[in-house]
From TrEMBL:
Subcellular localization: Endoplasmic reticulum membrane
Keyword Transmembrane helix: yes
BP GO annotations: response to bacterium
Coiled-coil zones: none
Species assigned in the record: Salix brachista
Primary localisation category: endoplasmic reticulum
Protein name: Reticulon-like protein
This protein's record includes keyword Nucleotide-binding: no
Amino acid sequence: MAEQSESPVESIMEKISEKIHHHESSSSDPESDSDKKPDPSESMKAKIWRLFGREKPVHHVLGGGKPADVFLWRNKKVSAGVLGFVTAIWVLFELIEYHLLTLVCHILILSVALLFLWSNAHTFINKSPPCIPEVHLPEKLVLQVASALCVEINSVFSGLRCVAAGKDLKKFLMVIAGLWVLSIVGTWCHFLTLFYICFVLLHTVPVLYEKYEDKVDPLAEKAMFEIKKQYAVFDAKVLSKIQVASLKAKRV
């Protein structure tokens, strides 16, 4: 009887202890959640300085879509084919010194002659006549390209106008320096060679930067800091005096 009277008491005590333990564990869960700290690597990634202050991936910076896929070698066959085609054009016109009008005329002569012979000789060789497609440029595409070019050219003209107005000395010096460097590069090579160099750089620099951006960005940050430091010294010693002199001349 004593054992039977003790068993209910023991069972009640066990239930009470289980409830206490369950309450303690549930109360300790929010404390453990609050004690969780953010991953330092994620916070470091958020604070990493990116080249040109970008916050988006390289693919999005290049405009996205198929052109960005070609420049970043997403499809190696397509990218290699485009680069090979441009290289062949550069070799034809720059190294072999083939002229554009001559090349177009030779291609048209060969194409028209082959189609003419095939159209007249298909009965003798027991083959069907060639199906010559109708080629025409869509008006909508031509208008879109012309509109885009017009917008870009107008933006360049407006930018040059703002620089020439004398409102921003920093932009004026940057434009003069850029045009001077471009004029020097123009004396070294022809326009087609310059275009080919830029095209090759677009096919190599972005993909290499995307692969090694974690190593490039710290070095670029140091370089930008040094450039800003040197510009601040130049601004304090030269540009500020020029601005003060121009203000005095205006007042006079």
